[in-house]
Amino acid sequence: MDAIFIFTFYLLLSFAAAVISAAGGNWRAEIMHREHPSSPLSTASHKTPRERFVAAVQRSHLRARAIAHHIEVAAVNVGARQFTSSVHSGVGEYLMNIAIGTPPQIFTTIMDTGSDLVWTQCDPCNECYPQNDAVFNPAASSTYQLLSCTNPLCLELPSTACTGANACEYGYGYGDGSITEGYFSSDSVSFPASVGTVPNIAFGCGVANEGNFGAADGLVGLGQGPVSLVSQLRNANIEPIFSYCLVGIYSTSTSPLLLGNASTVGIAFTPLVANPINPTFYYAGLTGITVNGAQIDYPANSFAVNATDGTGGLIVDSGTTLTYLVQEVYTPVLQAFEALVTYPRVDGSSIGLDLCVSPPSADADYPNIVYQFANGSNFEVPGNNVFLLVDPPSNTTCLSIAGIQGFSILGNIHQQDHMMVFDLAAQQIGFKSVACNTL
Ligand SMILES: *[C@@H]1O[C@H](CO)[C@@H](O)[C@H](O)[C@H]1NC(C)=O
Ligand SMILES: *[C@@H]1O[C@H](CO)[C@@H](O)[C@H](O)[C@H]1NC(C)=O
Ligand SMILES: *[C@@H]1O[C@H](CO)[C@@H](O)[C@H](O)[C@H]1NC(C)=O
Ligand SMILES: *[C@@H]1O[C@H](CO)[C@@H](O)[C@H](O)[C@H]1NC(C)=O
């Protein structure tokens, strides 16, 4: 019902859109958690809330390992593009809708800030996995084009080959072993329920796709690399900016992903930190952490990016569920929470987390954590997003932070209920607290 309604609405809007310039554009895509009731990846029908939470923790650990692998491979292959960009971070936690072609064909794709390529399953499929929507049919789009081997964006891809027809064939692998292969192409992109189209967006027409994509129709890369959707906005004279607001794993709401120039009212910004070895990821500069108002003591430079080998730093990532702090910071942070949270302890090893408790009621109180970013902006995570409900019937909650070696990640649980702005033009990242299910 909903899909038919949105599609009809969309057809009406796209007629009006034909006369509206794309410059300075501002689009809204709907995003949902992969466990949202209408997500093609939801496991709600056959898993308990606890099982779904534990699976999310396991996926988070896998993603953190995939990013670590990417960083390790890049560190030993500095300067060799085909290596530094050949392993991407893996499959994300949120889905977004996007339409490709004229007339638009609508897809539900994984949104990923840790990789760049935009791709969808494409006819004629050699090896496609099952998905809910029809696969993209290039022959049905009047604006579809194959890109040639000499196209500048083809040259940005890590792994390409030229066919007889001079078409840019690509292969793109993720850190968890997932892969998409096909024809690098271009077409108009639009968003259901938003006016206007972005012309000539390069994307992978994937004819051989395999891995942990569930039944999602493909993936939209939102990293900083040249082939990502946000970077390509520049080619249409649109500000390379996006923002999103994330809801939690048990939420039945969707929320917005805004592309192009967006309002910055009330947003606190901090400069993006450059990492020339790992240019896709979004690094922010952390200058301090407080737990319940008390400053945490940790070695200086724990969050510095090493520009020689690309290790270190704090990555802001939508596809990693937990927050991971380098061990020398994690240890004192964990100790602070252990001292402050006095509810009965529960063994968290079967959940994959270090500090779990069983409070007497579902609305227990937990200390907050504040991440102090360069340029004076404070990112506050309230207690109920620091301790996550694992198992609604038992009220068991766990600290949603873990330790890691070599670099840190600000994960999506911490980001929930913040408007997060990624501004590639001004090279800054911003945020403000907001109830995402109301937007
Ligand atoms: C972006 O939006 C602001 C107000 O929201 C406006 O003043 C500015 O001109 C816009 N910039 C572009 C490039 O559209
Ligand atoms: C730094 O802070 C100042 C003052 O709040 C602000 O005007 C400026 O835009 C910020 N710079 C960045 C890069 O965030
Ligand atoms: C940065 O990485 C290089 C190469 O791995 C290493 O030799 C150097 O000690 C590192 N610098 C710091 C400050 O850790
Ligand atoms: C969980 O919390 C609710 C109130 O929020 C309470 O009624 C219930 O007894 C608690 N369950 C357990 C197992 O403590």
From TrEMBL:
<feature type="domain" description="Peptidase A1">
    <location>
        <begin position="94"/>
        <end position="432"/>
    </location>
</feature>
<feature type="signal peptide">
    <location>
        <begin position="1"/>
        <end position="18"/>
    </location>
</feature>
<dbReference type="InterPro" id="IPR032861">
    <property type="entry name" value="TAXi_N"/>
</dbReference>
<dbReference type="InterPro" id="IPR001461">
    <property type="entry name" value="Aspartic_peptidase_A1"/>
</dbReference>
<dbReference type="Pfam" id="PF14541">
    <property type="entry name" value="TAXi_C"/>
</dbReference>
<dbReference type="InterPro" id="IPR034161">
    <property type="entry name" value="Pepsin-like_plant"/>
</dbReference>
<dbReference type="InterPro" id="IPR001969">
    <property type="entry name" value="Aspartic_peptidase_AS"/>
</dbReference>
<keyword id="KW-0064">Aspartyl protease</keyword>
<dbReference type="InterPro" id="IPR032799">
    <property type="entry name" value="TAXi_C"/>
</dbReference>
<keyword id="KW-0378">Hydrolase</keyword>
<dbReference type="InterPro" id="IPR033121">
    <property type="entry name" value="PEPTIDASE_A1"/>
</dbReference>
<protein>
    <recommendedName>
        <fullName>Peptidase A1 domain-containing protein</fullName>
    </recommendedName>
</protein>
<keyword id="KW-0325">Glycoprotein</keyword>
<dbReference type="InterPro" id="IPR051708">
    <property type="entry name" value="Plant_Aspart_Prot_A1"/>
</dbReference>
<dbReference type="InterPro" id="IPR021109">
    <property type="entry name" value="Peptidase_aspartic_dom_sf"/>
</dbReference>
<keyword id="KW-0732">Signal</keyword>
<keyword id="KW-0645">Protease</keyword>
<comment type="similarity">
    <text>Belongs to the peptidase A1 family.</text>
</comment>
<dbReference type="Pfam" id="PF14543">
    <property type="entry name" value="TAXi_N"/>
</dbReference>
